What we know:
The protein has one domain (4-262). It is 69% helix and 5% strand. It has helices at residues 34-56, 65-83, 87-91, 94-110, 135-157, 160-165, 175-189, 191-217, 221-280, and strands spanning 23-27, 30-33, 121-122, 125-126. The chain has a two-stranded antiparallel sheet. A two-stranded antiparallel ribbon has the order 3-4. The chain starts with 22 loop residues before the first strand and ends with a helix.
Amino acid sequence: MINPLSLFAAAESGPTIHVSPGEVFHIGSIPITNSILYGWIASVLIVIAMIAVARRTTLRPRGGAIQLVEFGVEFIRNLVESSFDNKSKGRRYVPYFVTIFFFVLLSNWLGLLPGVGEAATSNDNPLLRPFTGDLNGTFAAGAVTMVVVYAASIRETGGFRKYIRHFFLGSPFNPLYLVIGILEMFTDLTRVFSLSLRLFLNVTIGEIVIAVFTYLGSGLAPVAALPFTLLELFVGALQAYIFTMLAVMYLAIAVNNAHDHDDDEALTLTSVPETMNLQTGKA
């Protein structure tokens, strides 16, 4: 995100907008982009901040940033537990979902710091750019999240076969159910793209809006773009919640559906002897 508070005058030729990441240096033959560089910096800052908060956390409630982190952890924990029919299964994945929530949230917010975006350049590219402002970054976050979701779904449903089974409403040998199941599987595979594109587009659109109003504000650029910068604080939090909520729902749907299939199979097995007894007249 472009921070207008560090720009006291806009460029005369128009607003400068970089959508694609720019290379800042190389490690051997591997190019390091501004979004990767800032992603590393943001990760280190997030880890340090969370360790500091964890060490200062006590049984008695405390104010400030610690209370905000505790609120966020409690909020995500309730979200995860309420999504699963079996609460104990949901609790296993609270640490991961809390981690991804704060990573996306703070990556979005750290993009508003002075010096990020067009404020500092290298080789005609911004020196630092938010990790979530790069489609490669959001795709990586989405891919890792879905790998975790798939692995957890397969484990919780009792194996790969049962996980595939939850896509089909009835027998997969029924042509209608077979087509519906295949479509559901295809839709499931596209979730990584929906997660990454939604986050990337919202962050990028925020960058563009702030850049435009920074340019239009000219000498009053900080004042003109300040409302949109504050709005991006809300958007960043909202997108972190949506990203985490969707990931939780994807996992919960697979686990809950597998549980329903198990209940249906158990009900079928128990009803067969009762039916046979009624037919034979035996108690």
